[in-house]
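Troubleshooting: if your tokenizer reports a length mismatch, compare your output against this known-good record of 124 residues.
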Amino acid sequence: MNDDDRMLVPQPSPEARRWAMFCHYSAFFWFLVPMIGNVLGPLIVWQLKKDIDPFVDQQGKEALNFQITFSILLMICGVLAWILIGFPLMALISAVALVLVVIAGIRANEGKPYRYPFCWRFVK
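Known-good structure output:
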């Protein structure tokens, strides 16, 4: 994509960028509701605000997919905890997820779409 193509892509409105950022940051609802809050937060924000802008819809799906993937990985780590490898993996995955969520929220607030690496996309 060259500079001329970037100028043709409409920039999301400030409201759309804000709600897209909230889609990512609502994963921190996990601190209030352990185990499912990280999925419920993005799901609720996405469902309530997906119709205001395609950018919010796309970023909401991305945040939800990542949190589902993260939850599955944590469940696998829980099983692996029986052989003790699960605990360090859980800490590593949680730290990486924290960093990726912060980066995604910043990018969404800038109006730039973000795609999480290492993410299964269940919600299309």
